[in-house]
Amino acid sequence: MEREKKQGMKVRTKLLGTNGQVREGAEELLAQWQTGQADTLWLDIEGELSAAIRAELQTLGLHQLAIADVERKRLPPKLEEFNNNTFILFRGIIQLDEDLVLTPQQIGFFVGERFLVTIHREESLSINRLWSEITGGSAPTSPGRLALQVMDYASDRYLQKILDFEAHLGEMEERLLSRPSDSVMAELVGYRSELRKLRRIFNYHNRLVTEILGEEPKFLGTGQAADRHLWRALGDRCERLFSLTSMYYEICGDLVEGYISISSHELNTTMKILTIITAIFVPLSFLAGLYGMNFENMPELHLEYGYFFALGAMASTAAVLVYIFKRKRWL
Fold first, then answer.
1. Cβ–Cβ < 8 Å for 18, 39
2. How far apart are CA 43 and CA 315, in angstroms?
3. Quick one: pLDDT at residue 140?
4. Cα 279–chain centre separation
5. Domain boundaries, position 306
6. Are residues 128 and 9 in the same domain?
7. Each residue of 122-175: pLDDT tens digit?
8. Distance between CA 253 and CA 57 in Å, rounded?
9. Number of domains, the chain
10. Is the four-CA dihedral 57, 59, 61, 66 of positive or negative sign?
11. 174 and 272 share one domain
12. Which residue did the predictor score with more confidence, 6 or 218?
């Protein structure tokens, strides 16, 4: 065991008896479980798997391809059933901050009739929480129920973060309507990107639990009334997470499009005003340019009141154009 720790891997074991007795230790408890001295084994492995641990897992009947799936860094949640165990690959959560930036981690569950093996690269808060709750005197818990409780706690952490984001999204909507700015726009685009990632994860989770309820793997206890009810509750939560993130994603998209529409409207208004000003001053510039030419034989150059006639023509032209624009409701 010390050799495994030096390689950056942490292995711990719990033995759960039918009488509520709980023993915690390392690999020596695995041998006791194999001799039938305890009913349920929970083997938790954190970090990179060594060759020795990988071989030991295969002696428990875990398929080598499923073990390889756990070691992959990017793989969608999945469900596979083998002769002596059911394999679940679940996308857990290390951190989900206020900006919805997710730091996920994969957790592999191997659920057998008398054992549960959990494998993950980093520390898992969901596993640590349940691990600390199972103490001496605890009610007997099946391996399938243990896996369910870990996933249930992880999904609850997701849900709390998503619900907290709802109030912030409402504030951003008010800011966008009252004081639209590029900073709000950039923030919305960032949230939309993160929500798209979360929506994909929750869609996987929703499909995973739906598949579990549909196929009823024998080691997960979905055929039992109490456990099936809990699995349905987990399915409802996963479906809610997927629907909430989809809704927030669409709201962010609508707000972005609304900001673009407001900006386009303001730009059109500005361009219309500039166009009207240009239309008014073009004929005035024409008159000024015409009478600014230095030809000697221009008949109007020697008029006594030519200057005032020119100014009057310019003023009249401007007044007529303003009247026309107001008549057409352009002003």
1. yes
2. 92
3. 60
4. 51
5. 268-327
6. yes
7. 888 889 999 988 886 666 678 998 999 999 998 888 888 888 888 888 888 888
8. 47
9. 2
10. positive
11. no
12. 218
